[in-house]
Amino acid sequence: MAKPMKNVFKKPYAFGILYGSLLVSFSIFVLLDTFVIPKGITKVVEGETAEGTEGVTEEAAGGEALYTDSFYRDDKITVNITVTREYETQIYIADIKLKNISLLKTAFARNTYGRNIKQATSEIAEENKAILAINGDYYGFRDYGYVIRNGTLYRDNGNAAEALAVMADGSFQIFKEDSVSASSLLEEGALQVLSFGPVLLEDSTIMVSEDTEVGKAMLSNPRTAMGMVSPLHYVFVVSDGRSEESTGLSLYQLAMILQELDCSTAYNLDGGGSSTIWFNGKVINNPTDGRRAGERQVSDIVYIGY
User: Fold this and answer.
1) How many CB atoms are located within 10 Å of the residue 235 CB?
2) How many angstroms from the chain centroid is the CA of residue 48?
3) What angle do CA 69, 232, 184 make, to 5 degrees?
4) Helix ranges, the chain (H)
5) For 155-183, b where at least 16 C-beta lie within 10 A, e where not — what string?
6) Looking at the chain, which terminus has fewer C-beta neighbours within 10 angstroms, N or C?
7) Is-contact 144 157, C-beta < 8 A?
8) CB 133 within 8 A of CB 121
9) Where are the domains of the chain?
10) Is the pLDDT of residue 73 over 80?
């Protein structure tokens, strides 16, 4: 008679299997919690504005707006869009002149600050009645990096990275998050703080090398950046990439373009499939992540509007 099989699932083995299952389950939860599960933390109050800008309304623009597919002008905002081709890449440049810094704004996806809350740049722009918009720094993808938006502090957990502050006088300031607190920046007049990088230009000097890259990304990518020529005179630059029609830009090439546009300070924002520029009701570039065409949903935008 055959001997009965011994129970291989004795207590030590059972415990190991249980522990392994729990470890795998926890790892999956952490990944989902970090990259997938939406977590709203703060709902932005409709009409919330930075201190001192409450009087700026759409009616305050004054006069009738003039606009075409590449131009917008009213009494407070002028935007000129040009499309050029360099480095085998289609590049979209928005030259912006404002009468008031409150006209340079930011907005969250679904009007909510939190993790993994996403919308297409075009959708956020339309909901906020933007004139011009680009994708922001994708703050919701990580748990660090100062977040100050429209004069309100949302996150004060920084690191050693260099961030960009848009100040109440219209100037751009570059700073290291580990050298100044978010609350002190707010007290000094920071209206927007974007944390992605790297810094492309400071004092009109290129701050990246030909080999500088974000993480493990390729050297040629779709890009989004914003630069300051002088306070209240700004440039947004977005490039296509990862396609047969447009190779994409390196960070050094992007910095050179912004330097040629007379920017004194410039900062790199989220790129790749996120890179989107929206103007007067439509996306004007060709967003792609190299695998599929179309906008990637993002957590925030930078925009011009009332």
Assistant:
1) 19
2) 20
3) 130
4) 11-35, 121-127, 182-187, 251-260
5) beebeebbbbbbbbebbbbbbebeebebe
6) N
7) yes
8) yes
9) 11-304
10) yes
Q: What is the pLDDT of residues 222-236, one digit of tens each?
A: 999 999 999 999 999
Global pTM value: 0.83
Give me the torsion for CA of 68, 99, 134, 82, rounded to 10°. Answer: 40
Please count the residues of the chain: 306
